[in-house]
Amino acid sequence: MYYAGLQAKIKEANPLAKFVPCSAHSLNLVGTNAVDCCTQAVLFFDLLQNVYTFFTASTHRWKVLNASVKGLSETRWSARDNACQSLNKNWSLIINALNLINNDDTEKTLTRNEASGILNKLNNLETAFLSIFWGQILHRFNLTSKKLQAVNIDLGVVCELYKSLITYIIDLRSDKNYEYFKQCAIEKSKIKQFQSCTKRLQIRKQFFDEGPSKETAVEYSDFKVKTYFVVLDQLRSQLEKRNEKYENLLKNYNFFFKLTEMTSIKVRKNAEILQNEYKDDLSTLFANECVHFRSHLLSIGDEAPKTIQDMCGVLRKNDLIGMYPYIDVSLRMLLCTPVSNCLTERSFSCLKRVKTYLRSCISAERLSDLAIMYIEFDVTAKIEFDDIINEFATLQSRRKI
């Protein structure tokens, strides 16, 4: 792709063009890779889908459940969060419903066997542990993903959000957090032992001249080593790998976030590095301009803008673009760097609902107008549709007359 595909063609046209992966899609790939890294995680999400499929296959089973369960989706990672939340919320109801169906002699043998199989998988400490663990992980990932899809987000915010998730994962990777999740799972499932093998560490025999014996019974669980730590390590590795790409893109702009904290010499040096990268867009006066802008922010004091968008807003609000023209150019270059394409993809996906097989004769002009109405939904929602309907009805009545 990079050497012979679209990226290579764009690079030929403009060597300064940089590829920016969609931050929201990258976060979804982090979760996908973490799920596929160990058997227990794969089996757990298969169980989630099996629970959903079993109860939605029959209105009678859904009535027995009397609760809501969610299924998985290959394209929407947020569906996994919804599935975990529904399982945690309705844990006892799901088990009770499966018990009722399993013990009901009027049910088909196949149905009872299927209910029994799902029930056996739910009635173990591993499943309860993973439901709590993944429920918390996916909830944080889902909320972060929604923030990454915002229209007014920039590279600086993306790096902050990825770093926050990395720190969050590092904090979870400890024996204390493992014991916390385990205790919660025991209270939830009423089961105190993992089905996976639990072993004792072999202790070397001590001789009489080695001092008093300090033999202690030390246990370790295969589940902690081969599932809990593996999933967290994979999440951290994938997050750091993708965050590195965004940090490299932001590297030459980092001094803008610390203008008031840096000395004028450091500001000048960092500005020269950025100017050398974009010689055709930024003048040699750019470094001196940045030093002056630093002094301007210091004069404002506590009200000085902290984000790139706020800096651009100050330049326009106070009519300072004439004073700092190249700073305005550099800030707009950073703000125009796309960090997410989710909203754009949704606009194209919406066209499939607008132009269906039965509407294949719709003109290009009308289709374009409908697309603009969807993209600019904030403006469209403020339109009084009653006036438009009345006007349309009046036109139609005149035609009939």
Automatic annotation (TrEMBL):
What the entry lists under InterPro entries is as follows:
HATC_C_dom (IPR008906), RNaseH-like_sf (IPR012337)
- SUPFAM superfamilies recorded: Ribonuclease H-like
A Pfam family recorded for this sequence? Dimer_Tnp_hAT
HAT C-terminal dimerisation domain: residues covered: 324-378
**Which superkingdom?**
Eukaryota
The terms under GO molecular function for this entry are: protein dimerization activity
Indicate what this protein is called per its UniProt record: HAT C-terminal dimerisation domain-containing protein
Report the source organism.
Macrosiphum euphorbiae
